[in-house]
Amino acid sequence: MTKTLPKAWLACGAATMVLLLGVGRGMAAEAALAAKAKKALIVTGEDIGAHRWRETAPAVKELLAKDARLEVTVVTDLKFLCSPELKQYDVVVLHFKNADAKTPGPAAHKNLAEYVRGGGGLVLLHFACGAFQEWPEFVQIAGRVWDPKLRGHDPYGKFQVDIADPDHPIVKGLKPFETQDELYTCLDGQPPIKLLATAVSKVDQKTYPMAFVLECGKGRVFHCVLGHDLKAFAAPEVGELLRRGTSWAAVLPPTAQP
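Predicted structure:
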């Protein structure tokens, strides 16, 4: 004998089924997102006195984490660059200037070079261009590095950042924007790079690179010299530029974030 359930029960059962299906789909979407997430590592912990990495490193992590496809970790020991665990990350963000040439040393140079040339993504932020002055081959990975013989930067203040290659996925759709930062004029190097953003110095009226990319072996490198302090990250376009550049280096499609 077939028993007919009350209409209220049927309605409740249908609603529950829809809810369960919705939850199931949501969990599946979250699982799929987690499976596609790329591991990003911020390496910091040392810099010159004017660069307060204890303030800026958490800000960088927060900005990158707005892209849910990036799982962001921070380490404050530069010697981690010597570790074989480096290869567990899809993209490494250098946010330091090593003051001591012995730290992290040749083992880190070799490990980092192998990581990038083997397909790892690399991001250099602000004075990371001045890291590894004791390692001449660093320019082959960084594209451009700090030359202490050149003028360092314009006086700290506001300036406009212009988009140099509007068709590149990292900057596509971005408009020129104003930021408060140090306009670096100190970069030097010969490796071929693709300029993404530039700025004109108020001191000498010359145009200087603010962000660019290059390929090193199988790896992608995004280099951005913006990011002196917390005010430098206040412009939303700076965060957008950094997120897109990091996702590109991690071989993810750069997408705009809310």
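Summary: The first strand starts at residue 38 and ends at 43.
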